[in-house]
Write a structure and sequence with these properties.
GMP Synthetase, Chain A, domain 3; five-stranded parallel sheet; four-stranded mixed sheet
Length: 318
């Protein structure tokens, strides 16, 4: 049977009311479609008991906090912005293993929310967890592909009850719910962004230099693809971004030898994120990305394009 967002919404609202009861709740709003849809449902279900919080981990996209606040205001979701960037970076400094990164971020995320929940007297945490999150995180006989920070990264003991109204949905179904709820197109059509953010787009150990390189490179990739789509040079991919690889490569600047970081661009076509094919970006668009990245980002010396499907790869680098 085809998914019906019109019938799903009242069922989800009732589920939230039932799980939250008379208690206060906090919801993590990242600005992505999953958390925004979950927040919109929660705002319909328990408007006077809800506190929506955006945690700036320092691993967000360029100008993310400003954009998320604007989107939340448009959607009628009151939002608190909490800057915890130094705290998150401190926990991840020197960490290279991707599963360890995800679990550190997941646990710290919950601890941050427990602190803010205590301030407002909340006892419940509402999350925008969707089906691929818990499927890929493993358990119940499933292999762990990668631990999503809101599932495999959750600590075993939490001081909050958990409510996940989108848990059985896939990304395209969440978008349908967002559209049915009347959220702005810029929200329900926004490309996916990993919960751990740019922490998993810096492959290997995170440094402040690599973090700023990937932040600027991701912005350039999004801008250039946006321009190409507007000019009808290509279709908009399902997800598109840049990552920084752990090894540097040799290059030339003028008549000098340089040794700089390698940036990889990735863009894929998908329906639900469970499988994906790489997008065939026109050469002139790739050229524009490469030129801007290497000319404007100090420390970036080479740009590659990833043409691997999922499987065997995943959408993100880590």
């Amino acid at each position: 049977m085809a998914f019906n967002p019109e019938s799903f919404i009242p069922e989800a609202v009732e589920e939230i009311k039932s799980k939250v009861g008379n208690r206060k709740a906090v919801i993590a709003v990242s600005g992505g479609v999953d958390s925004m849809v979950a927040a919109a449902l929660a705002a319909k279900a328990v408007p006077d008991q809800l506190t929506a919080i955006f945690v700036d981990t320092g691993f967000m996209r360029k100008n993310e906090a400003v954009q998320v606040k604007k989107a939340a205001e448009t959607a009628g979701i009151p939002l608190q912005i909490v800057d915890e960037s130094e705290r998150f970076f401190g926990k991840l400094e020197g960490i290279a293993e991707p599963e360890q990164k995800r679990k550190i971020i997941g646990e710290l995320f919950i601890r941050v929310f427990e602190e803010h929940a205590k301030e407002v007297g909340a006892e419940m945490l509402i999350q925008g967890t969707i089906a691929p999150d818990w499927i890929e995180s493993g358990g119940a006989g499933r292999d762990t592909i990668k631990s999503h920070h809101n599932v495999g990264g959750l600590p075993e003991e939490m001081g909050l009850g958990l409510c996940e109204p989108l848990r059985e949905l896939y990304k395209h179904e969440v978008r349908m719910v967002g559209k049915e709820l009347g959220l702005p197109r810029a929200v329900f059509e926004r490309q996916p962004f990993p919960g751990p953010g740019l922490a998993v787009r810096v492959v290997g150990e995170i440094t402040r230099e690599k973090l700023e390189i990937v932040r600027e490179a991701c912005a350039i990739v999004e801008e250039e693809i946006g321009v190409a789509v507007a000019k009808e040079m290509m279709e908009r991919p399902w997800q598109y971004f840049a990552a920084v690889l752990p090894s540097k490569t040799v290059g030339v600047a003028g008549d000098e030898r340089i040794y700089r970081h390698t940036v990889v661009v990735r863009a894929v076509r998908s329906l639900d994120g469970m499988t994906a094919n790489f997008s065939k970006i026109p050469p002139e668009v790739l050229s524009a990305m490469s030129t801007r990245i290497t000319n404007s980002i100090n420390g970036a010396g080479r740009v590659l394009y990833d043409i691997t499907n999922k499987p065997p790869s995943t959408v993100e680098m880590e």
